[in-house]
Write a structure and sequence with these properties.
Number of helices: 10
Oligomer: single chain
Distance between the termini: 36 Å
Strand content: 5-15%
Order of helices and strands: EHEHEHEHEHEHHHHH
C-alpha cells in the first residue's frame, strides 16, 4: 500500500521541525512538501498534489485563519484531498469554520495533542479516507457547555445516548461507534434515531452530514443543511 503523501504548513520553525520528525517516523506517510505561509502552501499543493495537508490555523501573511482559508480553497480546487487543521483553540467557531463546506475529508486537531503520534495518525488516515476527525477535547467542551445549559435538550439524553452522541461528533460512523462502545450496530442505530429525534436533527446516515449537524447543535447554531 502506497504511503499517504502529506504537505505540512507551519510557520513556527520548532513546531514544523517537530511535526516533520514525527511524520518521518511513520511508515504509512510520506512528507512531500512543507510551507511556512498560505501562499507557499497553495503553491506546494499545486505542484505536489499531496493526499493530505496538515496546516496550522494561523500563519502568515495575516496570522488570522489561514488554515481555514486553505481548507475552504482546497474544497473546490482539490476536492479529494484531505485537510487536517491544527489549532491551539478549542473554540467551536474555528472547528465549524473548517467544516463550513462539509466535513468530508476534514479534521480539526488541537496543537497540544500533535505530539501524540497515534492521535495524529488517526486524524490523517480519517481525512484521507474521506471521513472527518474532530479532536475529542473540542467535542467534550461543546457537550459540557450544552449540558450546563438548564433548558438544553442534551439533559434529556440517557447516559448511553450521550456516549453515542459524543462518538458521532468525533466523526465515527455507526460501525465505529459500536466498536468504541462495545455494543452492536443495531443498538447504535436505535440510540442514534432516538438522539436525532430529541435534538430535532436529520437522521441522515451520511456520517459527514451527521457530524456537522451534531456540532452545529452543540455549538448552539441553527443548521440549514
Amino acid at each position: 500500500m502506497d504511503p499517504i503523501r502529506i504537505a505540512v504548513a507551519e510557520d513556527n520553525l520548532l513546531v514544523r521541525e517537530g511535526l516533520l520528525a514525527l511524520l518521518g517516523s511513520l511508515s504509512s506517510v510520506e512528507v512531500v512538501a512543507s510551507a511556512t505561509d498560505l501562499p507557499e502552501l497553495l503553491a506546494a499543493v499545486d505542484e505536489h498534489r499531496p493526499d493530505v495537508v496538515l496546516t496550522d490555523i494561523r500563519m502568515p501573511p495575516s496570522h488570522t485563519d489561514e488554515g481555514v482559508q486553505a481548507a475552504t480553497t482546497f474544497r473546490s480546487t482539490v476536492p479529494d484531498m484531505g485537510v487536517v487543521v491544527v489549532s491551539q483553540f478549542a473554540e467551536p467557531a474555528y472547528a465549524l469554520a473548517v467544516l463550513d463546506e462539509g466535513s468530508r475529508g476534514r479534521g480539526y486537531v488541537l496543537k497540544d495533542r500533535i505530539d501524540d503520534l497515534g492521535h495524529l495518525q488517526r486524524a490523517i488516515e480519517s481525512v484521507h479516507a474521506g471521513g472527518s476527525f474532530i479532536d475529542e477535547d473540542v467535542v467534550d467542551a461543546l457537550i459540557n457547555a450544552r449540558t450546563r445549559t438548564t433548558d438544553s435538550v442534551i439533559s434529556q439524553l440517557t447516559p448511553r445516548e450521550l456516549e453515542v452522541l459524543t462518538e458521532i461528533a468525533r466523526g465515527r460512523n455507526n460501525a465505529g461507534v459500536a466498536a468504541a462502545l462495545h455494543v452492536s450496530e443495531h443498538a447504535v442505530e436505535k440510540h442514534t434515531n432516538a438522539i436525532f429525534s430529541k435534538l430535532g436533527l436529520s437522521g441522515d446516515e451520511h456520517v459527514n452530514r451527521r457530524v456537522k449537524a451534531v456540532l452545529l447543535y452543540l455549538a448552539g447554531v441553527e443548521s440549514d443543511r
